[in-house]
Design brief:
The protein contains four helices and no strands. It is an all-alpha fold.
Length: 88
């Protein structure tokens, strides 16, 4: 998929609904904007979408998240947009 492609099915996916609920009272369009930036980070700076090379703060910065990085990362984990790296 090209960087300019929009994930049309993602906006109404159950994962997105869960993320929006988790990040309330943030408006849904703003959550979607953070996700688009998150996906661009993965598309531009990784070969396979594996963000394991970035720490939580770098991911939050890439998504232009202005709050605590842990809030964003935990919401992504809860919605299953992100998985924690497995040791070993």
């Amino acid at each position: 998929m090209a960087i300019t492609d929009v994930k049309l099915d993602a906006f109404n996916h159950p994962k997105m609904h869960r993320l929006v609920r988790t990040l309330r009272p943030m408006p849904r369009p703003q959550v979607i904007g953070h996700m688009e930036l998150f996906w661009m980070l993965a598309a531009v700076y990784t070969d396979d979408g594996d963000l394991g090379v970035f720490d939580d703060a770098a991911i939050a910065i890439g998504a232009e998240w202005e709050g605590e990085p842990a809030t964003f990362i935990n919401a992504l984990l809860d919605a299953r947009f992100l998985d924690r790296a497995q040791d070993g």
